[in-house]
Structure to design on (93 residues):
């Protein structure tokens, strides 16, 4: 049995990646929806992590985003880098 609300909720989620928004809550949803299938947050906090600056973080977000074929705007890449920085990397700009 599929609950009746599942379909509209799914459509909303699928529409999200095409919306350009710098909002923290939206970024968190974009993250949950697109960025948790290959790796979890452990790659951001491991001792031998690859990213060592905010710039490198943006480049890596772009790389993963391109690999996924999401076609995000620069603004969304920046929001996602900021989101990961706030929650995990904590680089000072
Ligand atoms: C198709 C699989 C895949 C998806 C989905 C994916 N990534 Fe990645 N990501 C990778 C791989 C592979 C690495 C490199 C992991 C390693 O070196 O062990 C990586 C590494 C990273 C790193 C660097 C971690 C470090 O070492 O500091 C960041 C940041 C990152 N991804 C962000 C994202 C974001 C943001 C998204 C969502 C847009 C995302 N990833 C979605 C495959 C993916």
């Amino acid at each position: 049995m599929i609950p009746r609300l599942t379909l509209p909720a799914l459509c909303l989620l699928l529409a999200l990646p095409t919306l350009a928004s710098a909002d923290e809550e939206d970024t968190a949803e974009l993250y949950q929806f697109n960025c948790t299938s290959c790796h979890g947050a452990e790659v951001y906090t491991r001792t031998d992590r690859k990213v060592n600056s905010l710039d490198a973080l943006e480049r890596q977000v772009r790389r993963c985003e391109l690999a996924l074929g999401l076609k995000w705007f620069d603004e969304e890449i920046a929001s996602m880098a900021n989101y990961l920085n706030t929650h995990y990397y904590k680089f000072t700009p």
